[in-house]
Design a protein that fits this description.
single chain; about 280 residues; alpha/beta; eight-stranded parallel sheet; two-stranded antiparallel sheet; about 20% strand
Length: about 280
């Protein structure tokens, strides 16, 4: 059974507007990244309590805290960021979710990621130890430009840290943008470590469009029909998180708005219906 969730801050910055569309689409989970122009880990305690009350009343649970942990330069100071990870665990516990989305640090442009491997592993292990102590699982997203932007380095991270509280998110669009055929090349390498799927698609980069074009699932080169069919056949029981990126985007989310967000949701459910998958 697939469970559909998503980054509702791409619907609107206002949480009430986010909830309205999630309820309209019968989506009962959210990957909570931001609300009210504020990142989730920067919300005040009062805002967190208000958000939880609104989500609870709407029957919406968190699939994950959509944090920015690890989304700093590997050369940046780390102590304050580790404190942010500790707060992230507290936020996940407060909302009753087991997952926090995170990253593996931006590598200086033009540098060899291998030169920073030891520091990436040390910092990641420190955050994972915080998660282990709190009973939370960190989910590494293969964001472009970070250490873990290739399938081989994702595997390296997960196997080297070697903790049940450190697993992978699979984002096909990010693999497309970093030069991989997602299902043909990346999936065979990372599949054993993936617990969570992001749903956004992209076309292969070209000289005039160096990041390609972000599209709804199945309309780019992310090979989502093949991936979802395989997950369905193998009995995947987890989250599919819609991350449309179809409109203007800022650090607090994005704003593709309700219509384009709905287009992204319908593209996903169209693939699921076509393969006869069960989802809620």
């Amino acid at each position: 059974m697939f469970t559909i969730t998503g980054f509702a801050d791409e619907i609107a910055h206002d949480l009430d507007e986010q909830i309205t569309l999630l309820n309209k689409l019968n989506i009962s989970h959210v990957e909570f990244r931001s609300a009210w122009d504020t990142k989730v880990l920067d919300l005040s305690q009062e805002q967190l309590e208000t958000a939880k009350e609104k989500l609870d009343q709407a029957g919406i649970s968190l699939s994950s805290v959509g944090s920015d942990l690890g989304k700093i330069q590997i050369t940046d100071p780390f102590d304050a960021h580790l404190e942010r990870a500790k707060h992230g665990v507290e936020v996940a516990q407060f909302f009753g979710t087991q997952y926090i989305r995170m990253f593996s640090f931006f590598i200086p442009e033009g540098a060899d990621p291998a030169d920073f491997r030891d520091e990436v592993i040390a910092r990641t292990r420190a955050m994972v130890e915080v998660a282990e102590a709190g009973g939370i699982t960190l989910l590494h997203e293969n964001e472009k430009g970070i250490y873990g932007d290739s399938p081989e380095r994702v595997k390296d991270l997960i196997t080297t840290v070697n903790s049940p509280n450190y697993r992978a998110i699979y984002d096909a669009a990010n693999y497309v943008q970093t030069g991989f055929k997602p299902f043909d090349e990346a999936w065979p390498i990372v599949s054993d470590y993936v617990d969570y799927i992001h749903i956004k698609d992209a076309t292969v980069p070209t000289p005039d469009k160096p990041l390609g074009v972000i599209t709804p699932a199945g309309q780019g080169d992310g090979q989502y029909p093949e991936l979802l069919a395989t997950l369905n056949e193998t009995g995947f029981d987890g989250f599919l998180s819609i991350e449309p990126h179809l409109g203007d985007f800022d650090e607090f989310g994005g704003l593709c708005g309700p219509d384009l967000w709905t287009d992204a949701q319908q593209a996903l459910t169209g693939i699921l219906d076509n393969i006869g998958a069960k989802y809620n």
